[in-house]
Amino acid sequence: MDSERYEKYSSEKESAFEALCKRCGECCGASGDPCVNLARRDDGTFFCRDYEGRLGPQVTVSGKKFHCIPIRDYINHGTLKDNCAYRVKL
Asked: For residues 1 and 26, what is the distance between their CA atoms, to the nearest angstrom?
């Protein structure tokens, strides 16, 4: 596969993967001590204020330090809640 086709394929896969998310915020601590970058929309869904720079050292609302990891790591470690769209679909 040439690089242009691979880039297109990769982009399509990433878009499909992102589309699975229900934006519940649970993997970012919405029901407990959330990441300071987690924000809630008027419709009740959540988003990351710094999505592009989210990975790596972060802090929760209470000041607890943690490392934000890719959702695929949550999937691979089986730490997602039962109702998570990624867990249900994948």
From this structure: 37
